[in-house]
């Protein structure tokens, strides 16, 4: 039996089993009694609704994962990758164009398979719990815009990678690494101005108590902001959030309009302080460095396996090609990707605790950070008692109950 075939098949099954097991354990781990730390925000009805939402989302994800895993296994085992390659080869395209076509067809197939689940999640599941505000027109436009960006930006990256693999020999992985790093940094730099506004409107926060408070904190914390913007998050969902975009001298904060409606100025200042904490504690710099190094490792490993005859035999390929090898490598890489994701989530959760601590210390008002987290949790119907396996596998942020308990230590 082909070792690559075994690794890929087993990794697909193990990933599915872990997801199902995680959901089952979390379902059993749910507590009927509301944790006392959140009794001031949650009432019995809201708590019951949050558990109902958790059950519904877990059932949905289990069905979604099961169907998608079965389809990719069937496609893999029955030689679907070779069949698509035959279609592309029949067109007698130049190598790079053939590669873009091959990967594009697989991407379209993946999109078509996932579309019914996206529609159900948006217009049925999220609608049932009062979160969805997306119109059919917005949904379609989002997919069209996202598709155009993927074709353009993804096409440039894939074409560049295929070109360097063909032309630069042993050091191709270094060139691919360099190209990906520059494109990633460039996108991060231009996203606030050119990409994000394609999907949402960003308006400067009006003068007033909130803006004064945010600017005062940024100045006190010696943190330069180039702008404070309000994003029309309510265009798609009632859930609230806030995030930083850009880097260097183009740092700006975006506040969802839904966040502003539900949080007090003191609580929003605490949210800003948390985000500033990520910068002050070096989390952004460390995350960027980690991402760059991980990309380098990926391309180095790719250079080892991308032309392996055994890898192509595992997929029943009649011909070897760099573009197919690129796809197959990322399926082979899946087990390592899962391990790295677990480690990344572990580090991320540690960073969230540190950013919470910075917010509590820098504002001198841990109660506002606690109340902000509680309100966000209640408004988003967060699961208060996820199982540790679910947290380990999926959570980049600690459960809100753990964050509240950690912040409580700063209360005088």
TrEMBL record:
Query: So where does Zn(2+) get bound?
Result: 274, 278, 352
Q: What class of enzyme is it?
A: hydrolase
Q: Which InterPro entries match?
A: CAXX_Prtase_1, Peptidase_M48, Peptidase_M48_N
> Entry's Gene3D superfamilies?
Metalloproteases ('zincins'), catalytic domain
Coiled-coil positions: none
Give a GO biological-process term. CAAX-box protein processing
Q: Name one Pfam family in it.
A: Peptidase_M48_N
Q: Where are the transmembrane segments?
A: 6-25, 63-84, 96-120, 147-166, 172-196, 297-316, 322-343
PANTHER family hit by this protein? CAAX PRENYL PROTEASE 1
Family of this protein: Belongs to the peptidase M48 family.
Name recorded for this polypeptide = Ste24 endopeptidase
């Amino acid at each position: 039996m082909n070792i690559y075939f075994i690794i890929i098949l087993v990794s697909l099954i193990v990933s599915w089993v872990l997801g199902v097991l995680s959901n089952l354990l979390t379902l059993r781990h749910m507590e009927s009694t509301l944790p006392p730390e959140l009794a001031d925000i949650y009432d019995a009805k809201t708590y019951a609704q949050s558990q109902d939402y958790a059950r519904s989302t877990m059932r949905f994800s289990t069905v979604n994962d099961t169907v998608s895993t079965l389809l990719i296994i069937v496609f893999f085992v029955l030689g679907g990758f070779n069949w698509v390659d035959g279609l592309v080869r029949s067109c007698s395209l130049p190598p790079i164009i053939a590669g873009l076509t091959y990967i594009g067809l697989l991407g379209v197939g993946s999109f078509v398979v996932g579309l019914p689940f996206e529609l159900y999640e948006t217009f049925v599941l999220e609608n049932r719990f009062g979160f969805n505000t997306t119109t059919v027109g917005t949904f379609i436009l989002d997919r069209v815009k996202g598709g155009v960006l993927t074709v353009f930006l993804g096409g440039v990256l894939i074409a560049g990678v295929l070109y360097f693999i063909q032309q630069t020999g042993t050091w191709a992985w270094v060139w691919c690494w360099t190209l990906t790093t520059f494109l990633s940094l460039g996108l991060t730099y231009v996203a606030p101005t050119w990409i994000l506004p394609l999907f949402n409107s960003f308006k400067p926060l009006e003068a007033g108590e909130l803006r004064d408070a945010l600017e005062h904190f940024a100045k006190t914390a010696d943190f330069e902001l180039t702008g404070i913007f309000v994003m029309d998050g309510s265009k798609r969902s009632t859930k609230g959030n806030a995030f930083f975009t850009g880097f260097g001298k183009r740092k700006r904060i975006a506040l969802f309009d839904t966040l502003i409606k539900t949080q007090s100025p003191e609580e929003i200042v605490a949210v800003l302080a948390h985000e500033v904490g990520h910068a002050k504690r070096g989390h952004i710099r460390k995350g960027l460095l980690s991402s760059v190094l991980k990309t380098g490792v990926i391309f180095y490993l790719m250079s080892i396996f991308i032309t392996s005859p055994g890898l192509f035999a595992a997929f029943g390929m009649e011909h070897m090609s760099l573009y197919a090898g690129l796809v197959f490598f990322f399926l082979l890489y899946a087990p390592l990707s899962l391990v790295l994701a677990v480690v990344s989530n572990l580090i991320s959760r540690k960073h969230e605790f540190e950013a919470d601590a910075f917010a509590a210390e820098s504002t001198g008002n841990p109660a506002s950070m606690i109340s902000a987290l509680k309100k966000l949790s209640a408004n988003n119907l967060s699961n208060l008692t996820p199982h540790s396996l679910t947290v380990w596998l999926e959570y980049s942020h600690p459960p809100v109950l753990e964050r509240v308990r950690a912040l409580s230590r700063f209360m005088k």
